[in-house]
Amino acid sequence: MSERKIALITGGSRGIGFSCAKELAKAGCDIIINDICDAATAQPAIDEIKSLGAEAWFYQFDVSNDEQVHTAVEKMIAEHGKIDILLNNAGITKDGLFVKMDAEQWERVIKINLGSAYYVSHAVIKYMMKARQGAIINMSSVVGLHGNAGQANYSASKAGLIGLTKTLAKEFGKRNIRVNAVCPGFIQTAMTADLGNTDEYMKLIPMGRLGTPEDIAKVVKFLALDTDYVTGQAIEVSGGLII
Ligand code: NAD
């Protein structure tokens, strides 16, 4: 089995997940990218990670499908032997005011953003237990801590991730598995591309700029590799959006 740590990153072919993949690759990890997109779409991301000197593999599956997750994780373990770091990053928005939010809109977001963290963590954690070490990082959001009008489904999913994070930290600390959440503010990715007038958002941010995926990746790398004693935390990375 490789001496290098292996990190599984869901929704890792672009945006924040891809940036985290590169940061961990630069720090000496090999990378398993998951995404729902096809292999050809993910190939440039795989090539870029390999150009950093890491091994990189792509596994296409839907993180909200328990059976697909289970099959894919078993295949990863058979092919690579272990998963040291899990970043539950895949996520979507389906925004709307609560009175107009239909059940499909609610359930889809909860299942992809929160259900996925159960499915993937549940499939992976038994191998971390056997290895007596591991780090899980859940990509939450500032709105999971503070709420946001028009995002009842998304905010609830991200708040749920924080509850899951704290509970798993308590259940698995003695097994040397740390579980933390990162709560990004406004980060420039495809997800926020149609926010419109970003000047208004920037007025709310003490640091005076929107965040970049790299801002998040640095904190993910810290939680994954640079600390042995931080667990159960939800760390806001928002330029001070809410202080
Ligand atoms: P993004 O849309 O660029 O990336 C999300 C990735 O998840 C995409 O590659 C997408 O294909 C993948 N994905 C979606 N559904 C999937 C599924 N069912 N199975 C597997 N993969 C799936 O968005 P991003 O901004 O990079 O967001 C990454 C994470 O960060 C999300 O969880 C998001 O909620 C969170 N976040 C983003 C911001 C922001 O401002 N961009 C703020 C707070 C939290």
Kindly summarize this structure in a few lines.
The chain is an alpha/beta fold and 243 residues long. It has eight helices and seven strands, in the order E-H-E-H-E-H-E-H-E-H-H-E-H-H-E. Helix content is 47%, strand content 15%.
Describe this structure in words.
The protein is of the alpha/beta class. The chain is built from eight helices and seven strands, in the order βαβαβαβαβααβααβ. It has a seven-stranded parallel sheet with strand order 3-2-1-4-5-6-7, with helices on both faces. Helix 1 links the parallel strand 1 and strand 2. Helix 1 packs parallel to helix 2, helix 3 runs parallel beside helix 4 and helix 4 runs parallel beside helix 6. It starts with 5 loop residues before the first strand and ends in a 6-residue tail after the last strand. The model has no long low-confidence stretch (mean pLDDT 97). Nicotinamide-adenine-dinucleotide binds next to helix 1 and strand 2. The site of nicotinamide-adenine-dinucleotide has 28 residues, from helix 1 and strand 2.
